[in-house]
Amino acid sequence: MFGAGDLENELLSDWQTIFKNVYAVHTSLRLDEELALMEQLDVMVSMDSGNMHLAALTATPVVSIWGATHPYAGFLGWKQTYDTCVGVNFSCRPCTAHEDKKCHFGDYRCLESIASENIIKKITYILEKKLIYGKNYCYR
After folding, report:
1. Could you tell me which residues come within 8 angstroms of residue 94 by beta carbon, excluding any fewer than 6 positions away?
2. What distance lies between CA 44 and its chain's CA centroid?
3. pLDDT at 5
4. By the 8 A CB rule, do 40 and 55 touch?
5. What are 87-105's pLDDT values in tens digits?
């Protein structure tokens, strides 16, 4: 798990303690080491965040999860494609482009409505493409 910020780091540390095979890399790696680790991943799952962009810079395919923002607003990771984005179409999206506004419903239903099966399908899609085209295949 990659993260940043005090609250997020605390949560990731808790998950690392609670769940088997979960490792919070923020606790022990420098940024250059995190980038080197991202580069070794077959696929990265990330929100629309800095980590999505960092993984994209290492040519790692990213399944990006979009809630209040939308990839069509111009914030898709470098050389990533729309077919690896996950989000739910609501008329209120994007409600923010820079996460500077709160959900006017107050419940972030755009995130709660994303089925985990849709994320798994995108991961499988990327992994199958890599099997067909080779380990170094990336969406370019």
Report:
1. 68, 69, 70, 73
2. 6
3. 75
4. no
5. 877 766 666 666 666 767 7
Domain ranges of the chain: 1-40, 42-140
- The 3 state secondary structure assigned to the chain is CCCCCHHHHHHHHHHHHHCCCCCCHHHCCCHHHHHHHHHHCCCEEEECCHHHHHHHHCCCCEEEECCCCCHHHCCCCCCCCHHHEECCCCCCCCCCCCCCCCCCCCCCHHHHCCCHHHHHHHHHHHHHHHHHHCCCCCCC
Sequence length of the chain is 140
Q: How confident is the model at residue 118 (pLDDT cuts 50, 70, 90)?
A: very high
Indicate the pTM of the whole model: 0.79
Token pair for 61? 């395919």
